[in-house]
Write a structure and sequence with these properties.
By secondary structure, the protein is an all-alpha fold. It has one domain (2-79). Helices cover 82% and strands 0% of the residues. The protein is built from two helices and no strands. The protein starts with a helix and ends with a helix.
Length: 80
């Protein structure tokens, strides 16, 4: 069915957009932590900013799994 293929494309695009947003947020927080360590006296290491990637990675994995499932459904239904 065409709707499953469209849903597969939507979730694939959503995963790509989420990965770009994740890169922007994590890099901003990392630079903010470096600045805070240098000038504001933060005691945590800058690698703490990488914790922001965890929820994004979960959402990206969920979107990729859904995209694969919908793609397989669309191929299965188009063959029959």
């Amino acid at each position: 069915m065409k709707k499953y293929f469209v849903m597969s494309c939507v979730f694939s695009a959503f995963a790509i957009v989420l990965s770009n947003i994740m890169c922007a947020i994590v890099s901003f927080r990392y630079c903010d932590m470096l600045y805070g360590i240098e000038y504001k006296g933060y005691s945590a290491p800058a690698e703490v900013a990488l914790v922001y990637a965890i929820p994004f990675a979960i959402c990206i994995a969920f979107c990729v799994i859904l995209a694969i499932v919908f793609y397989k459904k669309s191929r299965f239904l188009s063959e029959n």
